[in-house]
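4.2 Preliminary Data

To establish feasibility before requesting continued support, the project team ran the inverse folding procedure on a target of 196 residues. The structure was first converted into the token representation described in Section 3, and no sequence information of any kind was made available to the design step. The complete token record follows.
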């Protein structure tokens, strides 16, 4: 059973690498039940469409180490379906839609409607990014870890511009790259929460 105040980390599809030392450290903490690693179903969808050797390796890793919020709710007879689901999730569909629009406005400002998505893998990748990051925000997780700095941290050669925009839209957001700085920040947080 995970510690009640464990650190919750969402992994972007770009960072799922079973051989990465940073990911191995996260898994060590996960095994001690002080870090919970979330891999969204949308990442699985994206990887399923890959046609390279790493596909199976990543899918097996997700199955073994990744956690996904299960949004299954019993709806008693006569109860309103939408409000019962929203109560179980802890947020409304309207809140989720507004959050996704905020994510899209920073991530892909050129995409006003879903129909504006480019065809093929590029469009799928953008859509998956929105869904993964929106879920991370809605579930109030602690760290969003990505190698995709172009979409989540920088804007072209303007370092940190997207990160600042996300931080201005969403309180307490922590977008990090998988590196030693992340590990050090998590160690400090584990210590602060008396988990190590």
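Position-by-position output of the design step:
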């Amino acid at each position: 059973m995970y510690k009640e105040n464990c650190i919750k980390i969402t992994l972007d599809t770009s960072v799922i690498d079973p051989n990465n030392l940073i990911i191995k450290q996260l898994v060590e903490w996960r095994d001690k039940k002080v870090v919970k690693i979330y891999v969204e179903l949308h990442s699985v969808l994206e990887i399923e469409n890959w046609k390279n050797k790493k596909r199976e390796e990543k899918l097996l890793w997700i199955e073994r180490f990744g956690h996904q919020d299960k949004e299954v709710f019993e709806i008693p007879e006569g109860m309103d379906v939408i409000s019962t689901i929203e109560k179980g999730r802890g947020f409304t569909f309207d809140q989720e839609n507004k959050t996704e629009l905020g994510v899209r406005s920073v991530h892909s400002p050129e995409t006003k409607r879903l129909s504006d998505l480019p065809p093929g893998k590029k469009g799928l990748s953008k859509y998956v990014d929105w869904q993964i990051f929106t879920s991370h925000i809605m579930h109030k997780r602690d760290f969003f870890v990505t190698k995709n700095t172009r979409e989540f941290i920088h804007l072209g050669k303007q370092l940190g511009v997207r990160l600042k925009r996300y931080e201005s839209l969403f309180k307490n957001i922590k977008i990090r790259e998988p590196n030693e700085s992340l590990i050090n920040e998590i160690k400090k947080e584990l210590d602060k929460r008396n988990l190590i």
